[in-house]
Write a structure and sequence with these properties.
By secondary structure, this protein is α/β, with parallel strands linked by helices. It has a single domain, classed as Rossmann fold (3-Layer(aba) Sandwich). Helix content is 35%, strand content 21%. The protein has eight helices and ten strands. The strands form three sheets. It has a six-stranded parallel beta sheet with strand order 2-7-1-8-9-10, sandwiched between helices. A two-stranded parallel sheet has the order 3-6. The protein has a two-stranded antiparallel sheet with strand order 4-5. The chain is globular.
Length: 225
């Protein structure tokens, strides 16, 4: 079994890596091999003499196969800036075919491959390319991370509408509660459930430190693993 999903979201900073790690823990709990991939990362952390993107490190840690950072991260930029600006600054063209081949190699090693995007669904990756175009190249169903905060309904419906207009498959969505003081959280999530036809895979409770430990039980996968 080789199931590949692309994890994107309604914005940057809404917990894509956090949610991806929770989904990976859920898959591992069901005794399956899973790899997390982040083909494009911007922003390098330097800790203990090592240099790597924090999100990439987290996905490597949650993968239950031995992997090198370069295997799960095709393009890494030092500055935490928009990827198309970083690529232009370094005179690099982000090659979708290279990313796809990288993903295909990883798919053969695991039961599940979760590919995390960068920023939101329509973030530019080049002069004429977007994250949406990368999803098309990878031909992977999408898991949408929705950050539950003020304005989330509008952002969510616009994002999913854009996906469906492109003819891309939305596998499901995750409600990640970001604002502990938001009024009527349940009502907002109910409103989204009424308007989004695809299944709600998980409702992740507010977690100020964004650590995925012990949150796998919040996931409801629509099919048997």
């Amino acid at each position: 079994m080789n199931n590949t999903f692309f994890v994107t979201g309604t914005d940057t900073g809404i917990g894509k890596t956090f949610v991806t790690c929770i989904l990976m823990q859920f898959i591992k709990f069901h005794h399956k091999k899973v790899i997390g991939m982040k083909p494009i990362a911007a922003g390098i952390d330097r800790k203990n003499g090592e240099t790597a993107n924090e999100d990439v490190n987290l996905l490597k840690f949650e993968s239950n196969l031995q992997l090198e950072l370069g295997e799960i991260n095709t393009y890494s930029f030092d500055e935490p800036i928009a990827p198309h600006i970083a690529a232009q600054k370094h005179n690099i063209e982000i090659d979708f075919i290279k990313i796809r081949k990288h993903a295909e190699t990883l798919k053969r090693r695991a039961d599940y491959l979760l590919i995390e995007g960068v920023g939101g669904y329509l973030v530019p990756l080049g002069e004429n390319t977007l994250i949406a175009d990368l999803v098309e190249e990878l031909n992977a169903p999408i898991i949408v991370v929705i950050g539950i905060k003020l304005g989330c309904i509008n952002h969510s419906l616009l994002t999913i509408e854009a996906m469906l207009k492109r003819g891309q498959k939305v596998f499901g969505w995750v409600a990640n509660i970001l604002d502990n003081n938001m009024l009527e959280v349940d009502a907002n999530i109910s409103s989204l459930k009424e308007r989004i036809k695809q299944p709600l895979l998980a409702t992740i409770p507010y977690s100020p430190d964004q650590k995925p430990e012990n949150l796998k039980n919040y996931v409801t996968w629509p099919n048997d693993l």
